[in-house]
Design brief:
With 120 residues, the chain is mainly beta. It has one helix and seven strands; from the N terminus they run βββββββα. A hairpin with a 2-residue loop joins β6 and β7.
Length: 120
């Protein structure tokens, strides 16, 4: 589902509301989840434990692509930092986090921006 409201959107990068498989790795282990939304500069997702703001993360994204009519996944590996952590009301074990991508290859950043741009 894609929602776009240009008047209320203040972000520089377009954002799409897609569930993209995501693995987050920090010093406490791995979390496998999916994005609620994603842009060329970051992602928003739900995790099953609290993660402090500014925590550095290793991130693996699996973006769906179609090659020659066949559906495949393109893995993008980057680093990021948590810029927002919000508890989910009524659920003490789930949190929404916003992650800013801090280190992503130029090639992967271009691919991600194009992926987001095709749906926005």
């Amino acid at each position: 589902m894609i929602i776009k409201d240009s008047q209320s959107e203040r972000r520089r990068s377009p954002r799409i509301y897609r569930n993209i498989p995501l693995k987050i790795v920090d010093e406490h282990g791995d979390i496998v989840t999916e994005t609620a939304n994603i842009s060329g500069t970051g992602a928003y997702c739900q995790v099953n434990r609290y993660i402090d703001m500014m925590t550095k993360l290793k991130i693996d994204l699996l973006l769906p692509v179609t090659k020659g009519g066949a559906k495949e996944s393109r893995k993008i590996t980057c680093s990021g930092a948590v810029v927002r952590t919000e508890p989910i009301p009524g659920n003490t074990e789930q949190y929404n986090i916003a992650v800013f991508f801090t280190d992503i290859s130029k090639r992967d950043a271009t691919f991600l921006e194009n992926f987001v741009g095709q749906d926005s």
